[in-house]
Amino acid sequence: MAVIFHEGKVRGIWQDKLENGETVRSYESLMEKALxxxxxxxxxxIKFEEExxxxxxxxxxxxxxxxxxxYRIHAxxxxxxxxxxxxxxxxxxxxxxxxxxxxTKYWFGEDRSASLDLKDLREQVWLVLGxxxxxxxxxxxxxxxxxxxxxRHAQALCWAPLFHDxxxxxxxxxxxxxxxxxxxxxRGFNSGMSCIDCALPILxxxxxxxxxxxxxxxxxxxxxxxxxxxxxxxxxxALRCKYTGAYIDCLRLGRKREYLETLMSWTKASRxxxxxxxxxxxxxxxxxxxxxxxxxxxxxxEGYVWFAKHYTNRAIAEILxxxxxxxxxxxxxxxxxxxxxDKADQTSRIKGLIENAYECFLRLNCxxxxxxxxxxxxxxxSFTVVEVEALISGINVFENATDSTTLTEAxxxxxAEEGRxxxxxxxxxxxxxxxxxxxxxxxxxxxxxxxxxxKRKSSTGETSIGTGAASSSKSxxxxxxxxxxxxxxxxxxxxxxxxxxxxxxxLSVGSTFQVNVKVGPTFAKRVxxxxxxxxxxxxxxxxxxxxxxxxxxxxTKAS
Length: 559
Description:
Elements: H1 7-13, H2 26-52, H3 66-85, H4 89-103, H5 121-142, H6 148-164, H7 180-183, H8 195-203, H9 232-253, H10 257-267, H11 274-283, H12 304-333, H13 340-362, H14 368-377, H15 386-398, H16 407-417, H17 420-436, H18 443-457, E1 494-502, E2 512-519, E3 523-530, E4 538-546, H19 547-558
Antiparallel strand pairs: 1-4, 2-3
């Protein structure tokens, strides 16, 4: 059986230098032993399968036989190449030549190592990279459910621009491309496309459809004698987190917000896993969780499902923040005398972005006090809640605040003043969002913020009362009867009364808003209305009210 080397040990000896006339570093010796061990295991697995047939692939770990050994050899080759390419320019050539000495001994398929001496260093490294990718593709061909080679294949493509030019000064990184004559060597790399766009279809096989466990990896039972190599649940969750994180990162870098929204909708169908259940139970002081899993806080949590929700929501917010900041830069660089219709379209677009940022914020499932506490306790600029920053950026763009309360300035202030300025900016942003999107869920935020406002206004005697998604302020009536909602008694005579109200600005067709109607001194009712499709600024509607209330109103007017 192959010997598994510990990557922490490799990291520890990487910096070792040649001493006392040595010609080979400790790192090279260790990796040579590991690759030789895997090669021996591959030869043994091939011989075993020729005599006894392929192993049972329903089990995990080393039960994949020769495919497992093949993967370990070429995944190690890829890691060796990546470690070498990441070195500073002064040490990189020696590191790459050391990597070539290790990786060219274990060629996949036809051995082409003899022809490498005729090529320069860059071409040699590139041919080895292409050979590693070919091996990863072969693993998937031999075992369609062998998922680890998919991740390594995508990883290799994302690193391709640096293998092509380690001294690249464009700063494109994984957004870069490679020449057509080189990209043809790499399986899955399309000429003219960025590496991220090439890696995404490969990683997408993990998420090609909706599944309860999100990622296309399953728990496998194992008969391995070593429990350390097949700790199924931990290995299962670790792999899912690694694959999901890589997929979300590629979507975020590629600005694929629609795919992230789809993934977020899939997470809502997933149940709490055990770590998440333990966490919410501890939050409930050992009791049963009070809320639905989709109402769990995304600021603090445990488990794979929480990680997927948290990381996806954060990625969506980051994309929205970048889009809104780019929109602001375009606004500053264009003339002010643009067409009125263009201005209306721009306003509608930025409102759509703000609405999406507001949805990201609401998905945090935290009260305003909880978020304020997090911002105040982590007030340095290195800590960010991206959902909060995206929302503040959107409101800044909407109000065209180009010279004040920008996010950068808010960060500078919060470092010096314990996050208070950012909390105030967030409160203003939430007030504006509730004004723009009063049909959105989030009344819990209004209720929590009501307490904070009452504390601030207690010295002046003012009281702010939240009214759900559309918050408003009212003075409490002095008389005990007037202004209170009156229940309709059974058998009471009713009549229709018509009302006309103005449609609030900024609402889209089909969205809803609420109004309070009052008839007479005692009857009051809250009515939910829908914005009409004819874009009318006024809306007429009828409500059934007690006839006694109407008569009392007429009597009051007559007197």
